[in-house]
Design brief:
Largest sheet: 6 strands, mixed
Helix content: 40-55%
Strand order of the largest sheet: 1-2-3-4-5-6
Number of domains: 3
Number of strands: 6
Number of helices: 6
Distance between the termini: 166 Å
Oligomer: single chain
Radius of gyration: 47 Å
Shape: rod-shaped
Order of helices and strands: HHEEEHHEEEHH
Structural class: alpha/beta
Strand content: 5-15%
């Protein structure tokens, strides 16, 4: 059976077009990994970030990312990736080829991932490397990685790979737990709001029932609320005018009482004056 072609390795997702990065956009290594996940996606691949060549203090080198191909149709294989976000990073890598070799020797494919193809000048890419450039959501293959002849994996590398898989799953579980907890909290908030709305509705319904009972008017299924509202407003406005009228009358009555008292005093003065003058007339006689 012949080795699968690059298109077969990548699957139909490789043909899906993606947008180029906008000019001036800067990506960090983790941004490249996110696009790697979008390209070497589950369930066909398991993608791992920062895989050591051994666990604990035995580890000497680190691959920025690895992908494990799980489908027979795509060739069950181990992929290794180096992320370089600048020209300077890439030149340092070229000066230390043994860094990549530590993990590359176990891989079926090895590739460089960059945010800009200008980071690598023509003739600089080793013949055993492929090359991908970042796009908006995924990676675009510029140089398909050739098929390598990996050495058998020893226990150091095997346990390091298992350790990376376990860390990935723990992170996925933690994120799933946080998501479930956040969703549960939001659901609780919604339920609390619904409970308050239901309580408010019950109170409002009770008030409407009491109004209908007292007024004999049916709001729910009879009279239109706006019509009843206008009637109530008219009555309230009428009561307000009547109240003002009563106030004026009370004031007038009070003023009338004061006037009456004043007149009575004046009448009394006049009567006393007349009485005195009559007595004087009687004396003259």
């Amino acid at each position: 059976m012949s080795d699968p072609t690059f298109e077969e390795l990548m699957g139909p997702e490789a043909a899906v077009p993606d947008e180029d990065l906008e000019a001036g956009v800067k990506l960090a290594a983790h941004d490249l990994f996110l696009r790697l996940q979008g390209t070497f996606s589950s369930p066909a691949y398991i993608t791992l970030e920062e895989v050591r060549d051994a666990t604990g203090f035995d580890g000497q080198r680190t691959a920025d990312a690895m992908a494990i191909s799980l489908y027979r149709s795509r060739g069950k294989a181990l992929w290794g990736f180096e992320f370089k976000v600048s020209r300077n990073d890439w030149l340092k890598e070229l000066k230390q080829p043994e860094k990549a070799e530590s993990i590359m020797r176990y891989c079926h494919h090895w590739a460089l991932v960059v945010p800009d193809k200008k980071i690598v000048q023509p003739g600089e890419l080793p013949s055993t490397w492929g090359m991908y450039v970042a796009q908006k959501n995924r990676l675009k293959c510029l140089v398909p990685p050739p098929k390598l002849e990996p050495i058998p994996m020893d226990m150091k590398m095997f346990t390091a790979l298992a350790y990376a898989i376990n860390n990935r799953q723990s992170k996925v579980d933690a994120e799933a737990l946080k998501k479930a907890r956040d969703e549960g909290y939001q659901d609780g908030v919604k339920r609390t709001r619904l409970d308050r709305y239901e309580e408010y509705y019950k109170e409002l319904s009770a008030k409407v029932d009491a109004f209908e009972k007292a007024s004999g008017l049916e709001i729910k299924y009879g009279w239109k609320p706006e019509k009843i509202g206008k009637i109530v407003r008219t009555i309230l406005d009428g009561n307000r005018e009547i109240g003002q009228m009563i106030g004026h009358l009370k004031y007038a009555c009070q003023r009338f009482g004061d006037t009456k008292e004043s007149i009575e005093k004046q009448i009394k003065v006049v009567e006393e004056y007349l009485a005195e003058n009559k007595m004087m007339d009687d004396d003259d006689d």
